[in-house]
Amino acid sequence: MINKVIRFQDGMVLVFDEKREQMPELQGRYEQVRVKILARAPRSAKFFHGTWAKSTPEHLKAKFVEPLSPVLRKEW
Questions:
Q1: What is the pLDDT of residues 15-72, one digit of tens each?
Q2: All structural domains of the chain with their residue ranges
Q3: Collapsing DSSP states into helix, strand and coil, what is residue 9?
Q4: Nearest Cα to 46, choosing from 69, 19, 25, 65?
Q5: pTM for this structure?
Q6: What is the number of helices (H) and of strands (E) in the chain?
Q7: Nearest-angstrom CA–CA distance, 58 and 38
């Protein structure tokens, strides 16, 4: 079940379940996954906007900056 949904400023979306595991079938470009996520997300799901941190040489994969900004479902 969808628990947390994060939309980043570049349009990418990450989705996590109640076990904090990613849900790859619902992740991707906002325009491509928005309708599917909103249809499947329970009322208890939390929606956020996130900002990517700049990668550093010692960290080759992208990271996101906490805290995330909570948003209303209808504004996500």
A1: 999 999 999 999 999 999 999 999 999 999 999 998 876 544 555 455 555 568 999 9
A2: 2-75
A3: coil
A4: 69
A5: 0.81
A6: 1, 5
A7: 37
